[in-house]
Amino acid sequence: MSAVAEPARLAHRRRLPGGIGRWVGTGLGGVIVGAAVLVALLAPWIVPHDPFAQDLPKRLLPPFWMDGYDGIHVFGTDQLGRDYLSRLIYGARISMLIGVSTVVTSGLIGITLGVVGGYAGGRVDDAVLFAITTRLSIPVVLVALAVVGLFGSSLSLLALTLGLLLWDRFAVVARSTTMQVRQLDYVAAAWCAGCSRVHILLREVLPNIASHLAVVATLEMALAILLEAALSFLGLGVPPPLPSWGLMIAEAKGYMFFTPWVIMIPGVALFVLVFGINLLGDGLRDLLGARADP
Amino acid sequence: MTEALLEVDRLRVEFGDEVAAVRGASLTVARGEVHCLVGESGCGKSVLALAVMNLLARRGRRAAERLRFAGRDLLALPDRAMARLRGDRLAMIFQEPTTSLNPAYTVGSQMIEVLRRHRGAPRAVARDRAVELLGRVGITAPGMRLGQFPHQLSGGLRQRVMIAMALMCEPDLLIADEPTTALDVTVQAQILRLLAGLQRDLGLGILLITHDLGLVARVAHRVSVMYAGEIVESAPTAALFAAPRHPYTRGLLACVPVPGKVRRDQPLGAIPGVVPRLMPGFQGCAFRARCGHAAPECASAVPRRPAGATHDYLCRLPADWVRLEPAA
Amino acid sequence: MIRRAYGLDQPVIVQFGNWVAKAAVGDFGESYFFKQRVSELIGARLPITLTLGLVGLAIAAVVSIPLGVLAAVRESTAIDRAVQVVALIGQAMPSFWLGLILMIVFGIKLAWLPVSGTGTWQHYVMPGIVLAFSAIPALTRLTRSGMIQALASDYIRTARAKGLSSGSILIKHALRNAAIPVVAIATVQLGFMLGGSIVIETVFALHGVGFLAWESIGKNDFPVVQAVVLVLALIYVGLTLLADMINAVLDPRLRSA
Ligand SMILES: Nc1ncnc2c1ncn2[C@@H]1O[C@H](COP(=O)(O)OP(=O)(O)OP(=O)(O)O)[C@@H](O)[C@H]1O
Ligand SMILES: [Mg+2]
């Protein structure tokens, strides 16, 4: 027998240790999001300069890695001489604000619709499905632009509009997971034991679908942040002089052929934040998904 | 018998570090022979067949002292050359007829591509061959069936199509992995008659995997009994049924109701216990936990003993133990 | 006077009711700004947006399908991880910013393509690439999971047992089945892409319906905005129906049922 046991021949091809790559990604996402949260919360105390103070003689100063860096404005200044780093930091505040408020609003709408539809079934569910389909057929960017165009741009209007538009994925996922959970024995048992419907939904159903909803929340947050930037870029989002990253890019657009860093800095910030949120969501999906498996 | 077509010597297959599915199994199929491989569910029959075909799942790894087909060393054969052999000289049909055909293509196109691949035959020639073979496996209106999709056929028809497809290039060896378990009893009988007939007419070697000992008695020239990844006994059919040596074989045969000898009070089937799942590195006889003749020495390496020129078994008991201790 | 001519003196709900009634027969009224029938305006601009959408979808398919197949074939290896990271990068890329970067690189630095405008086929290349980015992550993931499932199925084992070449196994047998959901989703995705093309059309000054809507919002030209929203919604609904039909064509099991 031992003659056959050539370990070399039976050796298995090394595979990437699945865990490690995952953990690195999830950790990186967590660090990025954590940093963004901190920066957003602490913005007024950590900015090196006033993000709104104009200094026209010091326009378009280059950032620290380029020739002509003045030693004061780390990321340079914009076309009105405002400190770019300070504006970037306040921009994180706006992005996170939009992201969180959108997730809260859309989550409330979507989860309520999805759970009710998935739990009640029948006519109610048909109505929920119809609402989801209708919502999906609405072009989000266009409608958000039109609303802002109609009522004038403001941060709170934008947050509300996005919240009212981006609930579809919450509803879809809440509905399908609720349907699965409803089949489980202990939910049926609670139902038989005469617990009220509201009690069952809040105590038995929601905790069981929460992990899926958490993943959706990261996706929606990333989407809302990207949309806010796009709308602000088109001039129909956050009003100036607020330093939204999208607006910063729009304002700097005229100079980008000569000083490309003016659009690179806010663009990279936007990309990194959204990438971090998505990494975190991806990691969450794997971790929670694995644990949710019976 | 005659020239050896397939020689498997001490084949081992492992999945990851946890599962040793085949643990040094050896068998030989001669040209034109029907060789039956029997054993309980999970003992590694399918894995052995897939290892021969080099079709193991990605995690599966094989090693053997010798793995030869028609004189060619399959272990040394590059993947490309092996692919050329499969479907041409060496064909296989699977346990699951319902899912083994591609749902997206017609029966005809799936049959035709075999001949086109291996013979480069023109479409029309390949089509004629497909019609001929569908007729041969007992499908009526073969021309019409060629244009149908798998989901339009019953399970029995699909398995016939699989058999016909395996025969497209007139292979030397057909490995049939429980070709009838998924089918109902009347269809089972038809398919088996069909295989036996093909073997006679075409001089086909068949490695037939089955649980069905009644079937074995009817069609096999030779039988190998598999237990927990090992061939525990191998013999010509008549010898095996007349004088089984391994306690496991005796247990299996005791489960078979022989007409006229069935005792009504005796429960049908079942040696107590189940096939153990073994880790790589397991020592001794795998059957000892279920065996009525187990002794302390069964925990160490077990010898392979001859019981005649073409009969051997894997057990500590001597060849004449059966006579010394006749079954009750 | 003007308010009366446009019916703006009537209650909003009546105005909306009138608009819906007319829109149902293809009459979206007249643009305040262009002084032209809205249906004509949209009719002239829609082909540009549809072209952009199809170009974007084609680029997305050309990138996503090979990537998804590669990731599936090399499942759980470094290559698979890399493909998934590419998908994540695509998902995080702000389209308007990517558009600007492409403009700087290919429009100015290399001067291979026109920076912006409408007219020749070159004007669709950069917007098409940017638009493709929005569909690449979803299509790549879908192709990957579909291929993983297909490659693990019994009929692939049969195809290997028949000795087919690995190309034939991968493309003819596995991808053909994995493609069924991918094509259906891609069709629906086209609807989302048309809706999202407003940002890209504006960045590149490509005069499709998205650009038209953006202009009209800026000018409070609401008959046009309403009409564009409705047309895009209808196109989306049409595409979901088309997706069902394509599914039925691709999947023989649905065809005969
Ligand atoms: N891809 C795989 N990964 C891990 N283990 C496997 C794999 N394929 C088979 N096995 C294990 O190998 C053992 C033998 O399986 P095999 O399919 O050969 O049994 P069998 O004798 O064909 O049984 P049956 O009569 O039910 O078909 C089983 O314990 C099975 O769990
Ligand atoms: Mg089997």
Verbal overview:
The complex is a heterotrimer of chains A (294), B (328) and C (257). Chain A has 294 residues and is an all-alpha fold. Chain A has one domain: MetI-like (MetI-like fold, Orthogonal Bundle). Chain A has 11 helices and no strands. In chain A, helix 5 packs antiparallel against helix 6 and helix 9 runs parallel beside helix 10. Chain B has 328 residues and is an alpha/beta fold. Chain B has 2 domains: 247 residues, P-loop containing nucleotide triphosphate hydrolases (Rossmann fold, 3-Layer(aba) Sandwich), CATH 3.40.50.300; 71 residues, no CATH class. In chain B, the strands form 2 sheets. In chain B, strands 7-8-9-3-10-11-13-12 form an 8-stranded mixed β-sheet, with helices on both faces. In chain B, helix 3 packs across helix 4 and helix 4 crosses helix 6. Chain B is globular and about 65 Å long. Chain B starts with a strand and ends with a helix. Chain C is mainly α. The longest helix of chain C has 38 residues. Chains B and C meet through helix 2, helix 3 and helix 6 of B and helix 7 and helix 8 of C. The complex binds adenosine-5'-triphosphate and magnesium ion (MG). The site of magnesium ion (MG) has 5 residues of chain B, from helix 1. Magnesium ion (MG) binds next to helix 1 of chain B.
Q: In CATH's first tier, which class of the largest domain in chain B applies?
A: Alpha Beta
Indicate the radius of gyration of chain B in whole angstroms.
Answer: 21 Å
CATH homologous superfamily identity of the largest domain in chain B: P-loop containing nucleotide triphosphate hydrolases
Number of strands of chain A: 0
User: And the CATH topology of chain A?
Assistant: MetI-like fold
How many strands of chain B?
13
SSE class of chain B: alpha/beta
Please work out how many helical segments of chain A DSSP would assign: 11
| Helix percentage range of chain A | over 70%
Q: Oligomeric status of the shown chains?
A: heterotrimer
* Mean pLDDT over the residues of chain A: 80
The best one-word shape of chain A is elongated
Give the rounded overall mean pLDDT of chain B.
Answer: 83
Helix content of chain B: 25-40%
Tell me which protein chains meet in the greatest interface and how many residues each side has.
A-C, 40 and 43 residues
In what range is the share of β-strand residues of chain B?
Answer: 15-25%
